[in-house]
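Supplementary notes for students who missed Thursday's class. We covered one full example, reproduced here. Read the sequence, then the structure, then the short commentary at the end.
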Amino acid sequence: MDSRITRKNIRKQKNISKSSNIKNLAFTSISSTALGILGIGIPDIFLFTALIIKNLQEISLSYGIDFNNDKEKYFMLMIIEGALAHESIYEVNERINSFIESYRSYDIDFQIKQTSKTLASELLYLKFIQGIPIVGAISGFYDSKYMNQISKYANLKYQLRFLKNKL
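Structure (token representation):
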């Protein structure tokens, strides 16, 4: 990609990321709905989590960032927590922005616990309902909603990070 920062380059960067997001969103919706119709809820937690991570990895690669290190894993965990947080959204957002600014020290074990708590509070009830055949198909809508929410937030933060690194 051209090293200059122009609207065209920023749009191109967003479009690369957007195409993989659409594929992941479609797969999430189809798989969650199918598992919901069959009444399979708990195994979908692992599938959905893997899809979230895959989506974040593809977003990071679209912005030219390697995801195979602990700092990047920490950043991805913060993004998941930030996208799904309700009460603590300002606090999490501030932590992410400060991390982008300074790449300060980090505690990945703490972040794993925080992200796990946030995911559990958002998804546990939904996955319980997904275990009920036919009614569980509703979870496909919510999984898509959460995946979209995480993707949009991730794109926003990766774009901010990309621009900060370029300036």
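Commentary. The chain has a mean pLDDT of 85. The helical segments are 7-38, 42-62, 70-84, 89-102, 108-130, 138-166. If anything here is unclear, bring it to office hours.
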